[in-house]
Design goal:
By secondary structure, the protein is of the alpha+beta class. It is built from 2 helices and 9 strands; from the N terminus they run βββββββββαα. The protein has helices at 113-136, 140-145, and strands spanning 3-4, 7-12, 16-22, 27-33, 37-43, 49-55, 60-69, 74-80, 100-102. The strands form 2 sheets. Strands 7-8-3-2-9 form a 5-stranded mixed β-sheet, with no helix packed on it. The protein has a 4-stranded mixed β-sheet with strand order 1-6-5-4, with no helix packed on it. The radius of gyration is 24 Å and the shape is elongated.
Amino acid sequence: MPRQPAKTLWYDRPQYIFLEFCVEDSTDIKVDIEDHRVVFSCENADGVEMYNEINLYARVNSKDSQQKRSDRSITCFIRKWKEKVAWPRLTKENIKPVWLFVDFDNWRDWEGDEEAEMAMTEQYAEVSLRLLHLYLGLSSETAASQDPKQ
């Protein structure tokens, strides 16, 4: 029986790595998530065996990882061992297999999100305070003297 790798998309989040094996109408699905490796196999609609073996960039929590099948793909939610640490790549080796792609539709640069969110919150509070002072009819000098930052 012929065997080939499934097209695989991946993206990174603070707690999870997401893998999507793109195989339509798959049967006989097997996903083995180990601490440093993922092994995927299934048969596609044409009876071709799909097989991927991925040595992961870093350790994962295999006990707290899951998978979900749809008509078009099998998605794995793989829990990182060290949360909030970005992975620069999926594979341990610094080599990109031809069947592996970054899922740019779901990719997000989440590093630094907390700092950006805090800055936006501070800016929102400052603007809200100014609007309140305008609403109350306080002059800018009065508003500045009541600014809690000073």
